[in-house]
């Protein structure tokens, strides 16, 4: 018989290799919120658990404030030893036994960790999702059509006979499967780094904020711009961009007529007048970048910024907190600050900061 162990706490997805950083973040944030619990994470698994009062943790740890979590889910159960010939029955039994009576979920996502061990489960996740949806609808556990007014139901396979059952609040979780927005590199993009900024604007700003804060005619600077990926993204949004780099930009970056290239050092250049935006993806020590970004806000040189912090190989959560605290302190003004390790990031996190943020 399969084991369906009730589970209480959070299940969060992350980039494979950053499970300890996610576990450390969840542990610290829960402690600051006064909530007991403990993390479970193995490097390379692509996920971390934080066991405790799941409902309280979900309220105290908003998804938008988490840095290393691509997705935040509230645990329901851990299913082990499922019979491949009938995985549906134990799932339905667990859902029918929920204390809230399990009002219909609005959507079903059958997933797997984004890890070396999890990726081979992608085919199973797709095929099983097609079988599970009609069964749940027949049982009255899933809405007839996707309904954002109800929680989402997630089934995360970690092996063919093992999975976590969890739920998410559509208002407090990533809207994409696995928490990963699937972006396609545009044929004209000067480099793959363009995907970093595109994802940052999609993940760190909501639709209303993008409309208000990214308007044609705004002025921006791109520090360390070569070969021009981030400059190209901003120009496509209609911004006038000053690209700062001693290296060359791809020639077609200038086709829009909205780009000026200045051969200068991004750590030394400053604008003659205040800009709407500054972006920066320079390869440098994260504390030095954080201090320079703070100077831009302290001097009033920009109102919004997106920048990357390249993390060390060890103590990455500690370095993340130190750099963000340094930035917030040295900026010398109230700012909306959000940070996330994006899908297109590697050994780095991406930060949004803004005077005009919510």
UniProtKB/TrEMBL annotation:
Name under which the protein is recorded: Ribosomal RNA large subunit methyltransferase M
Enzyme's top EC category: transferase
Swiss-Prot/TrEMBL GO biological process terms: methylation
Active site residues of this protein: 310 (proton acceptor)
Record carries keyword Membrane: no
Entry annotated with the keyword Transit peptide: no
GO molecular function: methyltransferase activity
Keywords: Cytoplasm, Methyltransferase, rRNA processing, S-adenosyl-L-methionine, Transferase
Source organism superkingdom: Bacteria
Gene: rlmM
NCBIfam families documented for this protein: PRK11760.1
Upper classification of the organism: Bacteria, Pseudomonadati, Pseudomonadota, Gammaproteobacteria, Lysobacterales
Family stated for the protein in its record: Belongs to the class I-like SAM-binding methyltransferase superfamily. RNA methyltransferase RlmE family. RlmM subfamily.
Residues that, per the record, bind S-adenosyl-L-methionine: 193, 226-229, 245, 265, 281
Species this protein is from: Cognatiluteimonas sedimenti
Subcellular location: Cytoplasm
InterPro entries named in the record: RlmM_FDX, RlmM_THUMP-like, RNA_MeTrfase_FtsJ_dom, rRNA_MeTrfase_M, SAM-dependent_MTases_sf
Main location: cytoplasm
Ribosomal RNA methyltransferase FtsJ domain: residues covered: 191-283
Pfam families, alphabetized: FtsJ, RlmM_FDX, RLMM_N
Catalytic reaction list: cytidine(2498) in 23S rRNA + S-adenosyl-L-methionine = 2'-O-methylcytidine(2498) in 23S rRNA + S-adenosyl-L-homocysteine + H(+)
Task performed by this protein: Catalyzes the 2'-O-methylation at nucleotide C2498 in 23S rRNA.
């Amino acid at each position: 018989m399969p084991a369906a162990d009730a589970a209480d706490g959070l299940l969060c997805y992350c980039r494979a290799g950053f499970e300890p950083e996610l576990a450390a973040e969840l542990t610290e944030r829960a402690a600051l919120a006064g909530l007991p619990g403990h993390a479970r994470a193995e490097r390379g698994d692509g996920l971390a658990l934080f066991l405790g009062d799941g409902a309280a943790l979900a309220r105290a740890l908003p998804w938008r404030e988490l840095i290393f979590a691509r997705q935040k889910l509230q645990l329901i159960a851990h299913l082990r030893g499922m019979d491949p010939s009938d995985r549906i029955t134990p799932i339905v039994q667990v859902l029918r036994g929920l204390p809230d009576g399990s009002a219909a979920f609005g959507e079903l996502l059958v997933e797997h960790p984004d890890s070396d061990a999890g990726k081979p489960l992608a085919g199973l996740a797709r095929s099983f999702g097609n079988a599970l949806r009609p069964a749940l609808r027949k049982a009255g556990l899933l809405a007839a059509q996707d309904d954002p007014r109800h929680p989402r139901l997630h089934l995360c396979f970690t092996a063919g006979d093992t999975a976590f059952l969890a739920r998410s609040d559509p208002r407090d979780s990533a809207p994409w499967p696995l928490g990963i927005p699937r972006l396609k590199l545009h044929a004209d993009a000067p480099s793959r780094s363009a995907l970093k900024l595109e994802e940052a604007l999609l993940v760190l700003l909501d639709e209303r904020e993008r409309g208000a804060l990214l308007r044609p005619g705004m002025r921006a600077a791109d520090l360390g711009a070569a070969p021009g990926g981030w400059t190209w993204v901003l120009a496509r949004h209609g911004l006038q961009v000053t690209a700062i780099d001693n290296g060359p930009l791809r020639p077609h970056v200038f086709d829009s007529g909205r780009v000026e290239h200045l051969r200068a050092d991004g750590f030394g250049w400053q604008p003659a007048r205040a800009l709407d935006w500054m972006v920066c993806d320079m390869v440098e020590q994260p504390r030095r970048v954080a201090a320079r970004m703070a100077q831009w806000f302290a001097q009033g040189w920009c109102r919004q910024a997106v920048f990357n912090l390249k993390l060390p190989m060890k103590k990455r959560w500690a370095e993340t907190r130190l750099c963000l605290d340094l930035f917030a302190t040295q900026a010398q003004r109230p700012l909306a600050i959000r940070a996330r390790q994006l899908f297109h990031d590697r050994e780095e996190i991406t930060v949004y900061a803004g005077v005009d943020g919510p």
